[in-house]
Amino acid sequence: MAESFDVLIVGAGAAGLMCAIAAGARGRRVLVVEHANRVGKKILMSGGGRCNFTNTGATPANYLSTNPHFCKSALARYTPADFIAMVERHRIAYHEKELGQLFCDDSSKQIVRMLLDECAEAGVRIETSCSIEKVRHGDAGFHVDTARGAFTAPALVVASGGLSIPSMGASGFGYELARQFGHNVLPTRAGLVPLTLSGKHQERLADLAGVALPVEARCNGVSFRNFMLVTHRGISGPSILQISSYWNPGDDLRLDLLPNEDTFTWLQMQRAERPASELKTVLADCIPKRFAQRLCEHWLANKPMRQYHEAELRTIADLLGDWPLVASGTEGYRTAEVTLGGVDTDELSSTTMQSKRVPGLYFIGEVVDVTGWLGGYNFQWAWASGHACGGAV
């Protein structure tokens, strides 16, 4: 005999738990099923174990979606301030790292504990190590066969995440379920992910692995200013992870290697003040010495500053400010923080997250075609979409 609930939520991650809290607080009998052996695995690992749980500056402009308007309603109705209020109510100490990014002072375990305490207070039941074998929909609602028995509910919420970090248990289950019920799933790809290099760029930079420098990364009309990290296989760091969501193979990627300088004016000044110094020495004042030397070995002619005439300085400035880097691919879902694409938002209500095709079916969080920037934005989407859905189921 199947056990019955008002709401059945697939996935005990950020979005699923927030939805459960909101629905349970409204008196709904809620069951959350999670195929992994513990809840909130991505919460636990995020932010180096300190969980970058939101961003104070989150706006719809910080999200990628085929329909950029879809996220507006949920984000407006559950803001970073709303989540911060919950964090403060549970007396979790936090700090702003940079650019509005909020982290726990202590551990991401505190965020998971907070969510579980809120779920317990709302009477939510959570079953872990509970894989789903079959989902059916009929007059009585949804019938779900799991490793821990059969359950029924008039409302089914899919909060199963995307494909990023399969070692954490990520799978395409949510997309399969969407397709089962006639939903369009937009093509998915890895987002917020390191880029790989090949050929000459890889050969020239591979032994600089570990070198980091501030850059402005530009691609397809979008730019991000932050650090770049050279890796054994390519490039990473915040600026590269950010731009990776806007980059596709073959796209033109450019880096400003001196983003805090008017490079031409700076070079002229260096020539006047340090005429005997070589270019590689001068550059090493602004960028790591090994990187400066490598630039002068392969991309720039190195000589004493006094030997450069104006046109040469202009050419050097142009290259440093618009350095072309040919990326060959990404590190893929293995290290990606998010999945771009997903369940088509045109077939969902932006206020409730309910399917326009199947009454009682909802999609929230990463499984939906809404992807945030690096820095707490994806958690804010999870909280906001989960809360919107929890208030409607």
Automatic annotation (TrEMBL):
The cofactor required is: FAD
Work out whether the entry's keyword set contains Nucleus: no
Q: Which UniProt keywords apply?
A: FAD, Flavoprotein
Sequence ranges assigned to domain RsdA/BaiN/AoA(So)-like Rossmann fold-like in this UniProt record = 6-390
Source organism of this protein record: Dokdonella soli
Indicate the segments forming the RsdA/BaiN/AoA(So)-like insert domain, all copies: 189-338
Q: Which InterPro entries match?
A: BaiN-like (IPR004792), BaiN-like_dom_sf (IPR023166), FAD/NAD-bd_sf (IPR036188), RsdA/BaiN/AoA(So)-like_dom (IPR055178), RsdA/BaiN/AoA(So)_Rossmann (IPR057661)
The name of this protein is NAD(P)/FAD-dependent oxidoreductase
Q: Which domain of life does the UniProt lineage start with?
A: Bacteria
